[in-house]
């Protein structure tokens, strides 16, 4: 599945829900030993994001997330949990244009060459630095739900980056989904 240096392109094979809502899958790629998160640069604009992309008809959401993480970041690993679903870019009819499902992936290998290596950079960030670097506010919410997020004595998430502006066009649908 992850062989080759050519990324899938086009949207004709992608999965859409009722109302033409594009289904997108992505990962929070982590290194448990170092406590770091792998981010990639955006293709058309400056800034750091999580790897993600369209879920295609011939794969599961998990397979799509793994494929996109390989294509965009050159990271290979295994999914250890489902983080949740976020609806994004609400239209004037109140419908989302895309629904993002994110998974946590433990990175086992970083390829030296990968399909989008000439279009994107990749970099490991500490948890706090990843929250500061992410350009999309809803992706900060995703990272806050990963296993690297700090917890207090009552097992509640502690947001270590306090000045996060919540994107008013992003609606968080579910915080946790367990496989």
UniProtKB/TrEMBL annotation:
One term of GO molecular function: bis(5'-adenosyl)-hexaphosphatase activity
Q: Which cofactors does it use?
A: Mg(2+)
List, for all copies, the residue spans of the domain called Nudix hydrolase.
20-148
Highest taxon of source: Eukaryota
Q: Which GO terms are recorded in the biological process aspect for this UniProt protein?
A: adenosine 5'-(hexahydrogen pentaphosphate) catabolic process; diadenosine hexaphosphate catabolic process; diadenosine pentaphosphate catabolic process; diphosphoinositol polyphosphate metabolic process
Signal peptide (UniProt feature, chain positions): none
Against SUPFAM superfamilies, the record matches this protein to: Nudix
- Which keywords belong to this entry? Hydrolase, Magnesium, Metal-binding
A Gene Ontology term for the protein's cellular component: nucleus
Name-wise, this protein is: Nudix/MutT family protein
Q: What is the lineage of its organism?
A: Eukaryota, Fungi, Fungi incertae sedis, Mucoromycota, Glomeromycotina
């Amino acid at each position: 599945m992850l062989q080759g240096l050519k990324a899938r392109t086009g949207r004709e094979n992608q999965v859409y829900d009722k109302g033409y809502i594009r289904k997108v899958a992505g990962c929070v790629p982590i290194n448990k030993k170092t406590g770091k998160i792998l981010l990639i640069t955006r293709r058309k604009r400056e800034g750091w994001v999580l790897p993600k992309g369209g879920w295609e008809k011939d794969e599961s959401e998990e397979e799509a997330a793994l494929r996109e993480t390989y294509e965009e970041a050159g990271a290979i690993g295994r999914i250890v949990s489902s983080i949740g679903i976020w609806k994004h870019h609400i239209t004037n009819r109140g419908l989302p244009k895309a629904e993002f499902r994110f998974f946590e992936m433990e990175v086992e290998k970083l390829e030296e060459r990968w399909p989008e290596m000439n279009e994107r950079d990749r970099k490991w960030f500490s948890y706090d630095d990843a929250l500061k670097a992410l350009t999309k506010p809803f992706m900060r919410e995703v990272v806050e739900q990963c296993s690297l997020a700090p917890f207090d004595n009552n097992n509640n998430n502690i947001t270590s980056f306090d000045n996060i502006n919540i994107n008013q066009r992003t609606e968080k649908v579910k915080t946790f989904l367990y496989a």
